Request: fold
Amino acid sequence: MLNRAILIGRLTKDPELRYTPNGVAVASFTLAVDRPFTNQQGEREADFIPVVVWRKQAENCANYIGKGSLVAVEGRIQVRTYDAKDGQRRWVTEVVADNVRFLDKRGNTNLQDIGMIGSEVEYNEEDIPF
Reply:
């Protein structure tokens, strides 16, 4: 079986960095990915895909990319459910990133020179808070 997603797009806002109770970093952001066609008005549409990244790479994302940054994300699609405060069951579909590559610069930092492009993230299923 295979579950792989590879996306290239731009962040819709700065990554949100949090820490689990065990101190494991987790960042989330939404990636706007253009569709390969235009609509009837000749405009290009986009899909807005939630992405979650763990550990050191989560901190790197929070520190070195932001709204509008162009990134490539490689990971797996995850579908999960939870019970909301109102008692309703909610479904969430997201990409859990194994690898986030920074494709443009933020400010004057050359990310390639400092080794921040495409480092892999390892995680343990026990660290996932949901």
Notes: Residues 5-124 form a domain with the OB fold (Dihydrolipoamide Acetyltransferase, E2P) fold (CATH 2.40.50.140). Confidence is low (pLDDT under 50) at residues 107-117.
